[in-house]
Specification:
By secondary structure, the protein is an alpha+beta fold. The protein has a single domain, classed as PH-domain like (Roll). Helix content is 15%, strand content 55%. The protein is built from one helix and seven strands; from the N terminus they run E-E-E-E-E-E-E-H. The strands form two sheets. Strands 1-2-3-4 form a four-stranded antiparallel beta sheet, with no helix packed on it. A hairpin with a 4-residue loop joins strand 6 and strand 7. The longest helix is centred in the C-terminal third of the chain and has 17 residues.
Length: 111
């Protein structure tokens, strides 16, 4: 299962017993220049998947306004560690990715 998002490319790969997340300037993961942002963990260590809303604030003439929020998919691990996926997803994208990831994990009995 793969999700590829803009930013140049943000890639989530789920296979066998590992979930990987990469950020790259191009589609070739091996050429990723953001190695420190590449994450990998075992599915057996996964405790919870959810998405979270992040508000965007703008200040216009000294008045603070909330604009359309964005969402990120969060993976919480049993050891307390967390990581997120999706730099600025809209509500529908976040819901769809969350649904597909959960469905994929259930179908393949990976959780």
């Amino acid at each position: 299962l793969r999700f590829i998002l803009k930013c140049s490319y943000e890639i989530l790969i789920i296979k066998k017993d590992i979930i990987s997340s990469y950020i790259s300037k191009n589609y070739c993961i091996s050429k990723s220049k953001f190695k420190n942002l590449n994450k990998k963990f075992e599915i057996s260590n996964l405790e919870k998947i959810y998405f979270k809303e992040y508000p965007i604030w703008a200040i216009v003439r000294g008045v603070k306004y909330e604009e359309n929020p964005y969402f990120k998919l969060h993976f919480k691990l049993k050891d307390g560690e967390q990581f997120d996926f999706g730099l600025m997803l809209n509500n529908n994208e976040a819901k769809e990715i969350l649904r597909e990831v959960k469905e994929f994990l259930n179908i393949n009995k990976l959780t």
